Amino acid sequence: MSRQVVRSSKFRHVFGQPAKADQCYEDVRVSQTTWDSGFCAVNPKFVALICEASGGGAFLVLPLGKTGRVDKNVPTVCGHTAPVLDIAWCPHNDNVIASGSEDCTVMVWEIPDGGLTLPLREPVVTLEGHTKRVGIVTWHPTAQNILLSAGCDNVILVWDVGTGAAVLTLGPDVHPDTIYSVDWSRDGALICTSCRDKRVRIIEPRKGTVAAEKDRPHEGTRPVHAVFVSEGKILTTGFSRMSERQVALWDTKHLEEPLSLQELDTSSGVLLPFFDPDTNIVYLCGKGDSSIRYFEITSEAPFLHYLSMFSSKESQRGMGYMPKRGLEVNKCEIARFYKLHERKCEPIAMTVPRKDAVSRLEEEIRKLQTTVQELQKRLDRLEETVQAK
């Protein structure tokens, strides 16, 4: 019996730990809107989530430590006149958040330290330029006050929030159909988009030109999401022709064939990818799923390695991802998700077990492998005895 060699990785034993009941945010009415965004945004100060609102759109902002049951009369950010579709915290100022809505506007808000005491109706700035609902908002990772928005008018606008003016417009000539996802590269030099015309594009925003594009990265008709990962690669999630969910890794310089393509399952929920550049781990969270899969990306073939899966009983309505500076690293935490249930927001910590725990686990695995080998030898001897008779 040949002994299988297990690939060496620091993150092979990463596991998800859901928070206890008193550390969750209970009794929040998560939005029922059908849209493929996370519905939740988190930073080291606040957790924000899109909630149900009568007569317009609203989202809830709570101080991170204010866990437990949320009062039904808690003040919300309620300046939009139609449902909110996406929210994003500014990476340079933990008190500033942007929101995109069905009312065709993008609004930027400033949340006071300690959270809201009264409903917030007046934004710092309203950005008007889209003619249809705005489904994606995302901040530039390195340049301050630069915000990108994408609408169902097939237009991407890059805004200077300080002046309230659009500094770049990518019109319907670039994206002829609905834009499914937009992601900045880590240095903000490139934008990666996926579109309903079944193309993934890499765009140079300073020139406003398409640097590279890939037609049909996945054969299915369902939405594709794309994110930048390490070393000039992009990762896409989509569906096969038989509606099986897939994840693929691409080299941006050679988009003819994927570096890796893996089929996952036949679920119908769109997979939202979250990439951690420090550990090279990508987490896949499907809306309507009750699990989070995670993969490690390496520089050698096969490039994309399945690590494990965190599973729970209840399905997720949305997901927020905490920036690395908000984690408890002294507890070996490498990522934290905020899972939206129908009436609850539940933190899930991704933790690397300490070395002594890993050593015990590996010792158990070695014992099990020895037992399997002994059983195999006994089975072989038994087969020889039967054949001899």
Automatic annotation (TrEMBL):
It is found in: Cytoplasm, Cell cortex; Cytoplasm, Cytoskeleton; Cytoplasmic vesicle, Phagosome membrane. The keyword ATP-binding does not apply. Transmembrane segments: none annotated. Residues 358-385 form a coiled coil. The keyword Thylakoid does not apply. It comes from the Eukaryota. One of its GO terms (biological process) is cell migration. Keywords: Acetylation, Actin-binding, Coiled coil, Cytoplasm, Cytoplasmic vesicle, Cytoskeleton, Membrane, Phosphoprotein, Repeat, Ubl conjugation, WD repeat. One of its GO terms (molecular function) is actin filament binding. Residues 4-68 form the DUF1899 domain. SMART domains: DUF1899, DUF1900, WD40. SUPFAM superfamilies: WD40 repeat-like. InterPro entries: Coronin, DUF1899, Trimer_CC, WD40/YVTN_repeat-like_dom_sf, WD40_repeat_CS, WD40_repeat_dom_sf, WD40_rpt. Pfam families: DUF1899 (PF08953), Trimer_CC (PF08954), WD40 (PF00400). Binds actin. PANTHER family: CORONIN, CORONIN-1A. Belongs to the WD repeat coronin family. This is Coronin. The lineage of its organism: Eukaryota, Metazoa, Chordata, Craniata, Vertebrata.
